[in-house]
Amino acid sequence: MNKKIVLLFLLTLVFSCKKTNxxxxxxxxxxxxxxxxxxxxDPHPSISWxxxxxxxxxxxxxxxxxxxxxxxxxxDDNNLxxxxxxxxxxxxxxxxxxxxxxxxxxxxYFKIKVWDENDVASEWSDTNFWTMGLLNQTDWKAKWIGFKxxxxxxxxxxxxxxxxxLRKSFSVNKTIQKATLYVTALxxxxxxxxxxxxxxxxxxxxxxxxxxxxxxRTYDVSNTINQGENTLGAIIGDGWYAGYVGPKVLSKxxxxxxxxSHPALLSQLEIQYEDGTKKIIVSDESWKAKxxxxxxxxxxxxxxxxxxxxxxxxxxxxxxDQNWDNVYIHEGTKGVLQAYPGNSIQIYDEIKPIExxxxxxxxxxxxxxxxxxxxxxxQVQGNKNDTIIMRFGERLYDDGKLMTENLRFARATxxxxxxxxxxxxxxxxxxxxxxxxxxxxxxxxxxxxxTITGISFGSSIPMESSFTSSxxxxxxxxxxxxxxxxxxxxxxxxDSPQRDERLxxxxxxxxxxxxxxxxxxxxxxxxxxxxxxxxxxxDFGPYSVFAPQPYPKLEWFSPGWMxxxxxxxxxxxxxxxxxxxxxxHYESMTRxxxxxxxxxxxxxxxxxxxxxEAKPKGGFGDWLSxxxxxxxHDIMASMYYQYALKIMAEMSAAIGNQEKADYYQSTxxxxxxxxxxxxxxxxxxxxIDETIYGDGKGYFEGEKGFTGHTQSAYATAIYFxxxxxALKIKAGEHLVNLLEENDNLPSSGILGIRQLLPALxxxxxxxxxxxxxxxxxxxxxxxxxxxxxxxxxxxWNSYTPExxxxxxxxxxxxxxxxxxxxxxxxxxxxxxxxxxTKDAGFNKIIIRPKLGDKSLTNVxxxxxxxxxxxxxxxxxxxxxxxxxxxIPVNTTAKVFVPAKKxxxxxxxxxxxxxxxxxxxxxxxxxxxLDIGSGSYSFKSxx
Length: 942
Ligand code: BGC
Known about the structure:
Shape: globular
Distance between the termini: 59 Å
Number of helices: 17
Largest sheet: 10 strands, mixed
Helix content: 10-25%
Structural class: alpha+beta
Bound molecules: beta-D-glucopyranose
């Protein structure tokens, strides 16, 4: 009897243990892509989570979400804002809040429970939260305030006014329950409460078309407020609003004050007392202002600081502001105030110099070992009024001097004037540079490795993926892509971080978009930029060539650039299954497509010279290609348009608009048929009537003439899957022949480069793709590495040992930190590691590694998906092939394991016989099987 009880007890124990083990638990919860975000203004925020388990084949069969306005209410299950109830659903991301209406300032605490495939419930997740921001314009009581300052250095040809310092004291004498700061600027700001900087963000509130929208930030400052006297202190800079922005050539005579002449602050501090009363401190005429030590601060030109003008304790209550001036009420903006939806700019690394040289006496050059965007921290000791000048550049001349001519009109110079009191440490505000080298003059003592520290910053996009392989050059190429992405994802996806440009060029973004999405979680960052793209859409339909578009009179649009307005939202939707992104952008996209459809007339494609009215004429085409004649712009224009039609059909269906989906699909068919008839001969060769372009005048490099027969043309037709099978095979042959004629080196420009490697892979020539990717000769990515690249270059020939920095072009357009040609990196994930999604959102994963010419012995790809980590890691040892795979809970994968024909693949050393795992079919060199979540270790012979 006793024994029986013990047995029963043990059994129950085992059973109950098993139960929890087998269950799933919630790992990470986000709201609109953020963990516990403050101050959002989306009335139906999207909730996502991913889960973990020790077991395989785990699925979610149901979920429940409970939301309450306090932690206590959530705990007591009382007065809930939303109880979804137990919903039978596999969905674990993008679940829109569907509870009672949310109000300004509302706190929303929530928890989630999930049930697995056996209906075993998880524990409730930890409590997470979000808070609502100020939802109505009338919630804002603050006024826009500013303080006009004028140039300190009258001799300077640039207009570089000092950054105003603003302050306001107030008292608090009751117990605080909560204090929230809502704050923004026209320009950029830093705000401190009682001397403590609020938040980690730099260059806030970032860049938008301020005439249409301006974002505010929300900070919880409950713990920074004192009983008694308190002081808010803000510094405002010109930023994108009033400072120098973009290329000088685009806005002569001066490329500044594109939105307004002086920066302004809008600040509203709301204090909720425990007794239920409330106090708000707003920016208004009662604030005081003064010039301080920041004698100038400009994004492109740099920052100047005179430490002798410091105002010790100015942003604390221990300060007398009697001799400060009054602020003025600034005209503000008509743009609507909205909660910031993106990833604010933050510091992500500190970099120590690897070498210090002295090319001329007293001029020191610090090599940071890495090209990046950010600024330098200076540490010096010297005499009062010693002036240290720091200039920034990406490369050196052979004589070791700093090369700055590729910065064009960006002066990129920071100046620090010492107060002469011991060790002085300084970091500039409101500027950034793209650099690997810092040239320092004015030092009285020999510098050391602490004199300069690189501070790298960019938008705080979560970078959750990784890629390594047995080829160290390839690994370096990938690292360079990551640094290039970090340097250029600066509030908007920019082309370059160093010269007077730094614009959100649409062409570059669409080419790099999938690579970028593999590298980082861009749900929030892209969403923010899509609003910029909408704001930059011309009334007659096309998207501008860059977004934001700060030049009111500029009407530039270009095929291949404007389709980014459809392609990047599509890619983002595909990666996150986020149909809200599609819905929010849909009206704008259909307006854009209407424009295309009307312009492409009856045949719905673009014959030669269809874009003469575009600015620049014909558009930019396959910009920076290395072909003798340029690929006819109209061929690319047609194919980008066709691709846009196809993905618009898919997105329309995804949001339930089947009628539009059919319409785009049938327009696509008409277009493709007419395009093929016009441009392709029976041998699948692209042909054009060159005479139609005349002498090519007015086109970018049009004098070289046009052709249809280039790598980019075939790669694009194959990658966009435009051609019927028979023609695709022929196009593939042309592509391979063109490559052979070119020693297997790429000649594509920025509109074609992304397509090249995956297109080869698609026609079964991943061997050739590997060969091209791993080339070291000019022009190739390996060539860049061999010539000192630490980020991706703008041009194949940005630097060659023979011609140096490409002569005259260097001063016109030659960035060493440009991601467009980094678009090869999607291939590392999509083909080499072989991680793809069948549906939208990586629920139905495909793992299909392409082994290429088998020149690599191992590849390890890890992608941080919305459902959690996906791993595909393979190695080849003689004939043995090993593939380790990790698939997140609630997803499945189709795995393609390369194996000899009749070889029985092993999983965790056990032959796959069909009991737990089953081979479904043979597909080419692969054995195919379906797997559920979990970790797997396959082995085969190849
Ligand atoms: C930018 C590019 C952009 C191009 C248009 C350049 O100045 O840096 O990346 O796409 O202009 O041709």
